[in-house]
Amino acid sequence: MPPETADIKEEYTRFIGRKILFITVLAALLILIVGISASLGSANISLTDAYSAILDKFFPDYFNPSNLATNVVWNIRLPRILLGIAAGIGLAVAGSAMQGILRNPLASPYTLGIASAAGFGAALAILLGKGFVGGDYLVVANAFIFAMLASGVIIGIARFKGTRPETMILAGIAIMYLFSAMTSLLQYFGEEAEVTAVVFWMLGDLDKASWDQLGIISLILVLCVPLLLLKSWDLNVMAAGDETAKSLGVRVERVRMLTMALASLLTASIVCFTGTIAFIGLVSPHIARMSIGGDNRFLLPASALVGAVLLVAADMVARRIIAPNILPVGIMTSFIGVPLFFYLILRKRREYW
Amino acid sequence: MRLQIRNLRFSYGSTEILRDINMGLNPSEVLGIVGPNGTGKSTLLRCIDRILIPEGEVLLDGQEISGMSRVEIAKRIGYVPQSMTGVFPATVFDMVLLGRRPHLSWRSSEEDMDKVLEMLDLMDIKDLAMRNFNETSGGQQQKVLIARALAQDVDILLLDEPTSNLDIKHQLEVMEILTELSKTKGISVMMAIHDLNLASRYSDRIIMLNGGGIRDVGDPASVLTAENIRSVYGVDVVVRNEDGKPYMIPMRSSR
């Protein structure tokens, strides 16, 4: 006895509802972690104080937080937390989009050489003091430009040789090796202090967070993320293969290049400020995919939130675990992410990729 | 004539796959494309749907298809691949919903859902709706892919070996669905097919390809002759007529 049409419709609606619920829960979790993270630190601030200080900016006269709380939260902790959120969202969305268009579970801003190119740009600036822009933004601009250069090469090769996923992945991996070799070369000849500075940059951290940086990254997020979301149907269709996608009206080559360009821009604009924060771009999409499946309409927002939660949580631990010393968050993301990832892999019964 | 092809040619690099293809496809017609392996049957279907870009003209209701956007083509022509492997896990419902892509923006509407349900019902696979596509059988997958093409609301269906992965029961079932669709909905069906007896039984017209060109066109009885089959396939067959349709009994390879 086949099921009634109305039943299927209801079941499918519930199926979609579960995805939306997952996203909602993540959003709530993020709000909770923001509060906890804002309350933790050398200055003693309670959880309520932290939320009051945050909300006071938007609804003055209702919350009356202490001066200390307002100062510490808004000037020190919040920029760092928000940078964590923005970076988590950006890297995770870039990772999901790349995995989607390349149909490869290992694709991420790191495996495709974009981050190692940024690292080389930074190393060049730190070790030789040379770059395209002088002054305070020397390292940042250099990292950004080299990251975009790397993705430009990948897209260029794809344009020339056709946008087959394998071509793009192999080009990306080759670029990763090239730039890390060049960074090693610079380090080999560099002064000890500078080499240390390069190593620290590569670890990735949120120490240099400022409202200016946040402005720039947010602008890029607002520009790129909605565009990628609009492409989520195309990404869904492309998951079924290029041929199918073409027969369903998708301009496969164009979508693949555009997505690659947007994902690269996202990655470059984040890692140039934070250094190479590992793992978020690779693992957040997988965590989201394992939880709610591969429908990009929901996968992209869900991975964005997973990325934000993971990064803010990792940074919170990194700040407190050997306080008053602060570990670079880039180290912590893997320590927190890998066990979570293993747990999900072991628990998962159905295939998800 | 709904679809018209003039002087179509296609090459992979310097290897010519198709040459001088001239043919047409009528409303409500079931057209079978037969021919040995590597003779360009699948390539022809892909060229018509512009998955591959051929030389020559493909006219859809008299309009040159190369001037149309992919979305416009996808609203008219549905393509059913032979099989799909290495696909991301997705429910059968979501798989069929992809067929609505040419018609929708970011949100899928109530109407799109109803369309999917209608096609699941039509193909008699409602019970699979929430199953993982990859975990269904070959015959079921074939039906899902046809349902997806139908959800596109097309009037031309191109099918690449729709019966190759199926047992005899599913073969007949799929062919009956296709002929019924062509008669009740006026859909033109063009299918590449290996099984000559199935082609004969269900096609209104047959095109026999050989070496990238058209060897013969016409109704099954005129194309599927012992002589044609010997010269194209290199096989001796005995042809028997049953209800006006030829059926082939293979005897031996004539080489």
TrEMBL record, chain A:
Is-annotated flag, keyword Lipid metabolism?
Answer: no
Q: Which UniProt keywords apply?
A: Cell membrane, Membrane, Transmembrane, Transmembrane helix, Transport
Membrane topology label? Multi-pass membrane protein
Which regions span the lipid bilayer?
20-40, 81-98, 110-131, 137-157, 169-190, 210-230, 261-283, 298-318, 325-346
Q: Name one GO biological process term.
A: siderophore-iron import into cell
Q: Does the keyword tRNA-binding apply?
A: no
Q: Which GO terms describe its molecular function?
A: transmembrane transporter activity
Q: Where in the cell is it found?
A: Cell membrane
InterPro entries from the xrefs?
Answer: ABC_BtuC-like, ABC_transptr_permease_BtuC
Per the record, the major location class is membrane
Per the record, its GO cellular-component terms are:
plasma membrane
Instruction: Indicate the family of this protein.
Output: Belongs to the binding-protein-dependent transport system permease family. FecCD subfamily.
**Physiological role:** Required for corrinoid utilization. Probably part of the ABC transporter complex BtuCDF involved in cobalamin (vitamin B12) import. Probably involved in the translocation of the substrate across the membrane.
Subunit field text: The complex is composed of two ATP-binding proteins (BtuD), two transmembrane proteins (BtuC) and a solute-binding protein (BtuF).
Q: What is this protein called?
A: Cobalamin import system permease protein BtuC
The encoding gene is: btuC
From TrEMBL, chain B:
InterPro entries noted in UniProt:
AAA+_ATPase, ABC_transporter-like_ATP-bd, Metal_Ion_Import_ABC, P-loop_NTPase
Ranges of residues in domain ABC transporter: 3-236
SMART domains for this protein: AAA (SM00382)
Mind listing the GO molecular function terms for this protein?
Answer: ABC-type vitamin B12 transporter activity; ATP binding; ATP hydrolysis activity
Reactions catalysed according to its record? an R-cob(III)alamin(out) + ATP + H2O = an R-cob(III)alamin(in) + ADP + phosphate + H(+)
Record keywords: ATP-binding, Nucleotide-binding, Transport
Q: What does this protein do?
A: Required for corrinoid utilization. Probably part of the ABC transporter complex BtuCDF involved in cobalamin (vitamin B12) import. Probably responsible for energy coupling to the transport system.
* Superkingdom in the source lineage: Archaea
User: What organism does the UniProt record list as the source?
Assistant: Candidatus Methanogaster sp. ANME-2c ERB4
Q: What is its EC number?
A: 7.6.2.8
The record's Gene3D superfamilies line, in alphabetical order, gives: P-loop containing nucleotide triphosphate hydrolases
User: Highest lineage ranks of the organism?
Assistant: Archaea, Methanobacteriati, Methanobacteriota, Stenosarchaea group, Methanomicrobia
Q: Which gene encodes it?
A: btuD
Family, as annotated: Belongs to the ABC transporter superfamily.
Its name, as the record gives it, is: Cobalamin import ATP-binding protein BtuD
